[in-house]
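Researcher: I'm preparing a figure for a lab meeting and need a structural model of a single chain. I don't have an experimental structure, so a prediction will have to do for now. The sequence is pasted below. Please return the structure as C-alpha cells so I can convert it later.
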Amino acid sequence: MSTLDFDRALLKQFESGLDPRHPDKGNIPAKVIGYGEISTVLEIGAGGGSNLAYKRVPIFRNESEVESYEALYKDYIQTMNDRIGIQVVASDIAKITDERRNRVLIYIMQEKLPTESIGHKAIHRLQAHDVNRLVLAILTELSKVFDFNQRNKGNLELGIDGQISNWAVVNFNPETARLDETISLVYFDTSTPLTRRDGREQLDPELFLRSAPSFLVWLLRWLFLEDVMIRYYDFRKVGIDLIANFYKEQKPELIPGLVDTVNEFFSAQIRDGGMKPLSVEEIKAYYREDAMIWRLYLAFRKVDRSLHNLLGKYYPYILPDKVKR
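Model: Understood. Here is the structure written out cell by cell.
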C-alpha cells in the first residue's frame, strides 16, 4: 500500500463546499473523469496539474463502517500486490469528515494515469490483432486471481472486475499505437474490495444499495444483490463482462474475434467439461440486459435526487448526465 503525497485539508475543504450536482462550480473546482456505481473519480483543483485522481466514496453511515472498509481495502491491495502478483496503481485512502452535513466518507487517492493508456481508450487506437493481444494479457492477469482463489478456496478468495476500462497499459505510446512484445498492465479498480474469508464475504453487501433510491432497495436486494456479490468470483462471468464491455465502447466488430480469444484461453476447461464456451449471442444478450438495467437505474437515481432536492435534503452522489451505451 503506497503512501501518496496528498493534502487532507484540501480534501476536507473541497468536500465541505461541494455541490454534487455541479462539482465544477465550488470554491475548489473539480472535473469528473469517471463514474462508478459507488464512487466518482475526480480531478480536484482542475487545471492545477495534480498527479492524483480522487475516488469519492460517500456511502457510509458512521465511522465504524469507514474503519472496516479502510482495513479491508488495504488488505485487498496488499494481497493483490504481494500474494497474487497483480500490479495495482499506487494508492492511498483517507477518511474525511464533513461537519456541516454531519457525514463521514472516504477518498481513495491514486496516481493519475495517462488517459490514452487506459484500456477502453487504447482500444480505439490499436489494430484488431493488438486488441486481441491486450485482452489475452488481461485474461492472463485475471487468471492469477482465480488460480489464487482455487489454491486458497474456503480460506481466502478475492473478487475482481476485469473490464477493459479498469486496466492501463504501462508505457503505452499513443503516437505509434502499438503494444510492446511484452504487455505490462496496471489495475486500478480497487474501490470494491470483494474478499471472502472462510467462505464469507467481508465487504458489507448493503453498501452496494446505499446509492440506490430508497423505493428500489428492496427490489435490488431481492433481484440483483446476490449476483453482484458472486459474479466477480466466477472467471467465466468476468470474461463475459470483459467482452460485453466492447459494446459500450462502440467496438462491436471486435467481439467475434474476442470471443474466440477467450474460448481459446479457456480451452482446457471447456474440453474437460468444466466450462461452457462463450458465444457472441450470449455476450449480446448479457450486454443488452445489463445496459437496460443501468439505464433504468440511472433514471431512478435522478428521480431520487429530484425528490431529495424537493424535500430540502442533501443528495451526496454525483451522477452523470447520460452514459453512452
